[in-house]
Amino acid sequence: MRGRGDTRDLVDSLKGLGGDVRVVEHPDCTIAKRAHYAPPWADVSIIGIAGSSGSGKSTLSQAIVKKLNLPWVVILSIDSFYKSLDEEASRRAFRNEYDFDSPEALDFDVLVERLQDLKAGKRAEIPVYSFEKHARLDRTTAIYSPHVLILEGIFALYDPRVLKLLDMKIFCEADADTCLSRRILRDVKDRGRDIDGIIKQWFSYVKPNFEKFVDPQRKVADIIIPRGVENHVAMTMVTQFIQQKLHEKSRRHRAALTRLESQALTNPLSNKVVLLDPTPQLRGMNTLIHDMDTSTADFIFYFNRFCTLLIEKAMDNIPFASTTITTPLNHCYAGLKPRGEVSAVVVLRGGAALEAGLKRVLPDCKTGRVLIQSNLRTGEPELHYLALPKDIAAHEAVLLLDAQMSSGGSALMAVQVLVDHGVKADRIVLATYSAGRLGLHRLTTVFPEVTVVVGNVIQDVEERWVEKRYFRC
Amino acid sequence: MSTTSEIAPTKCVGPDYRAEEQKPTATVSTAVDLANVTVLSQTPQLIALLSIIRDKRTDRGDFIFYSNRIIRLLVEEGLNHLPTIEHPVTTPVGRVYDGLAFQGKICGVSIMRAGEAMEQGLRDCCRSVRIGKILIQRDEETAQPKLFYDKLPEDIADRWVLLLDPMFATGGSAIMAVEVLKSRGVPEERIIFLNILASPEGISNFAAKFPKLRTVTAFIDQGLDDKNYIVPGLGDFGDRYYSM
C-alpha cells in the first residue's frame, strides 16, 4: 500500500516538471493483497506526568516502571530537550540568572518530532543534555520499540501538540516547602550547585513560573496525584491503566498475527521463497539432524555443514554486478562481484546456531543481534534486546538468520526491526533451517520483497527443537 | 590440441524471481552434452567466487579461502552420486522424517600437488575420510606423464573414490590416475572426479574414454592455448595455493 502511494507521488512530481513520464509498474502494485503487520510498539501509549519541580514526578515514574518490571515501559525526561545555550545565555546560567523554569527554555519542536517518530514505531534519537555544561552533548540516546512511554517533566502537559499525543495526563502535587527542600538536596547532590544559587533561582524563576505556567496544567490533567509515591491508591490506578494498555496491545498484536494466518493458507508460496534442492546428500544430512538418536557431536557437525550450504544459497540471492577481471595468463574474464557490503543479523537464540556456517562463508561479516522470545503464556513474540551495525541501512544485503521459523511471529518482528532501522525490505534475505508454511505465508504477505531461503518446509507449527539440540539446553 | 576460438557463453545470472534486466551478465560455463559430466549450477555466487580466484591480483590468503568454498560445493555435489537407501527416523519432537542413509564406504585420492589443496574441503564434509595420494609427473625424456608415487588405502577396491584435481587441461595426469585406480581393482563406476576448472576438449575426451566415471566440475572454460594452458583460466593452481 505504501509502495503504491510512493509511486504515484513520484509520477506526479515528474509530471510537474513536464518530462516524458513512463509509468513503470512498481513490483508492490502487482501483489493484490499486501497484508499489514503492526508490531506492538507501533502505537506506543504515552503517559505525561507534569508538576512542580520537586513534586516527585521522576520518583513516581520510576516507581511505576519498577512495579511493572517490563523492558517495554520507558521513561523519557523532558529535561533532555533543554535548548543548548549560546555564550551569553550560558554565562547567565552559570550565574543562576537564566530562566530554566520557563517553557521557553525547552525545545518543544524536537520533542514533538521525536514523540511522533515513536508513535509511528520508529527509532527516535533523544538528545543528551548536560546540566554541568548547559549544553546538548554530541551523542544521543536511542529509544526504540517501547510499548508504553512515560514523559516526565515540569512542562509535560504544556504544549498542545504534545497533549494530542498523550494517552493519560497526570499532574503531581506537593507542598511548596517539600518541593523546595527536595530541589535543594537534588541540585547540590546531582547538579553541583550551591545553596545560595538554588534559593536565588527558586524565588526569581521557579516560583513565579510555577504560578504562571506549571500550575495551570492541572486543568488539562486526567488525574491529579497528591503526595506522589506515598499515594498508593493513585499508584495502583496508574499501573492498572498501563497494564490494561499493555494487555490491549498484546491482544491486538496476537489478533493481527492470527488474521494473517487465515488469509495465508489458501495461497501458494511466494516465488521469493527459495528452497534448498532436496538432493540425496541434503536428505542424508537432514536424516542425521532429525534423528533423535544422533549423537550431539554428529548433530552439530551435520547441522554446521548443512547451514554452510544454506548460507551459500542465501548468498545467491544478494545483488551482484558485472566485473571484468584479468587472469594470471592476462586473459579477460567477464565475472561478477557483490554489489556492496553484506552483513548478517542473528535472531537469538536459534539464529546463533547458523553462525558457524556463516563464518565459513563470510568470516569477517558484520553481525547484528536481536533477541526475540516468545511469551510462554501467550506465545506472543517479544523483543528483548537489539544491537545492529551502525551503518546497516547502507548495506547492499542483510542476511537474517534463524534456526526455525514456525508461526513466523518472530521473523516478522525481526524484519520489522530491520525496516525500522532503515534497511530496505528487498535487501533482506532470511535464511532458516526449517520453516512452516504458515510462517512463510505470513512473512511474505506482509513483506513480499523479502527473500526467504529455507532448508526444509514443514506443514505444521513446530516447537524450537533445533536450538535445544545445538546448544544442549 | 589446437587453440579454441569459440566465443564464451555470456548470460544474465540470478535467481528465477528476478527479471532478466535485474540480473547482471557474466560468462558462464561452456555447455557440454555429456551424460557423465555434472557442472555446478551457474549461480551468481559461484561466478563471483570464480572471479576472485581467477583474478591475478587476488592474494594467496583469499585464493585459498575462496577456492575452499568452491571445493566444498564440489564435494557436496560429488557425494550426491553415492547410493542411498530409505531410512525413516523419529525427530526430537516425535515427528517421523522420511530420511535417507548412504551406503558404501568412501575415500579420497588426491593427484599431487594441486589435488592435495582440495583435501581440506573434503574433510570439512567427511570428517575422518581416508585420503590416498598419487604423484604423476611429466617424464623429461618422453614428455609423457609418468607415475612416480602412490599410497592408497589397502581396501580401496571396496570403496567409492573421490578423485581430486582442481585443473583439467589435457587431462594426462587424471587419465593416468584413473588407470592406476582401475589397476587396484576400483571399478570405473565407483570413481567420482572432482574438478574446479576444465577445458571443453579435455573433459569431452575424458568422458568418452571412461564412460562410467562421473565428473563434477565447477566450470568448463573456453579452451586451451598453444601451450595447453586453460583459457582464460586462473594460472597455476598449485603455485597460487602453496607458494606464490
Order of helices and strands of chain A: HEHEHHEEEHEHHEHEHHEEEHEEEHEHEH
Helix content estimate of chain B: 25-40%
| Beta-strand proportion of chain B | 25-35%
Helix content of chain A: 25-40%
Report the structural category of chain B.
alpha/beta
Regions with little confidence, pLDDT below 50 for 5+ residues of chain A: 1-32
**Average of per-residue pLDDT values of chain A:** 86
Radius of gyration of chain A (CA) equals 27 Å
Number of strands of chain A: 16
Give the biggest sheet of chain B.
8 strands, mixed
The parts of chain B where pLDDT drops under 50 for at least 5 residues are 1-5
| Count of helical stretches of chain B | 6
**Alpha carbon gap, first and last residue of chain B:** 28 Å
Biggest sheet, spatial arrangement of strands of chain A: 8-16-15-14-11-12-13
Radius of gyration of chain B: 19 Å
Largest sheet of chain A: 7 strands, mixed
Biggest interface and which pair forms it?
A-B, 51 and 57 residues
- The coarse overall form of chain A would be elongated
Q: Output mean pLDDT of chain B.
A: 91
Instruction: Tell how many strands the DSSP assignment of chain B holds.
Output: 16
Shape of chain B: globular
GO molecular function (chain A): ATP binding; uridine kinase activity
Organism (chain A): Pseudoneurospora amorphoporcata
Family (chain A): Belongs to the uridine kinase family.
Pathway (chain A): Pyrimidine metabolism; CTP biosynthesis via salvage pathway; CTP from cytidine: step 1/3; Pyrimidine metabolism; UMP biosynthesis via salvage pathway; UMP from uridine: step 1/1
